[in-house]
Amino acid sequence: MLPGFLARAVAVLLDREGHSLHLRAAGAALIVLLVVMLTGSWAVIVAEQGARNANLTTYPRALWWSVETATTVGYGDFYPVTLWGRIVGAVMMVVGITTYGMVTAALATWFVGREKKRRGRIAREIGSDVHALHERFDRLERLLAGRPKDD
User: Fold this and answer.
1) Residue 146: which H helix or E strand, with range?
2) How far apart are CA 62 and CA 41, in angstroms?
3) Fewer CB atoms inside 10 Å of the end CB: C or N, the chain?
């Protein structure tokens, strides 16, 4: 069930029709983050296996560590002690920071785009009202000046 859901989610997020570029980029970044967190959890367990004072010895602990590392929270309850474990951690940090930055930028772009559309609609409405007012003023000026209508 889950692989089918993930395949459908990937297909929807990466579909070129009907979705804006920033939404597709944010979706792709989240998928990359998820994959890096899952594989990074496994990789850190492999890197830390047999190391003295290793505390990342089970997948649930490693998964929690990957979440707090990718979000840059870093509680310090779990941490890698080997060089390769720290390299995996550095990759997790870079991918996490990049992903959350892309998602934030996508949301900001979406909000700005909505506001721009709203302002454009209002400007069109005001523009048509202003044009109608100009026509009325022109008619009034002609009437006050005693000139006939220019039709």
Assistant:
1) none
2) 5
3) C
**9-22 pLDDT tens trace:** 666 555 655 567 77
At 53-74, the pLDDT tens digits run: 998 999 999 999 999 998 888 8
80 close to 41: Cβ distance less than 8 angstroms: no
In Å, how far from its chain's centre is CA 84? 30
CA distance 89 to 91: 5
Determine the Cα–Cα distance for residues 78 and 64; give it in Å rounded to an integer.
Answer: 8
Token pair 């390299």 in the structure block, residue = 87
The CA distance from 48 to 14, in Å, is 35
The whole-model pTM stands at 0.63
| SS3 assignment for 121-143 | HHHHHHHHHHHHHHHHHHHHHHH
Distances (CA, A) of 55 to 10, 77, 92, 118, 123: 34, 9, 17, 53, 61
How far CA 51 is from CA of 19, 46, 66, 74, 88, in Å, comes to 47, 10, 19, 21, 15
- Measured CA to CA, the distance from residue 47 to residue 41 in angstroms comes to 10
- pLDDT for residue 45: 94
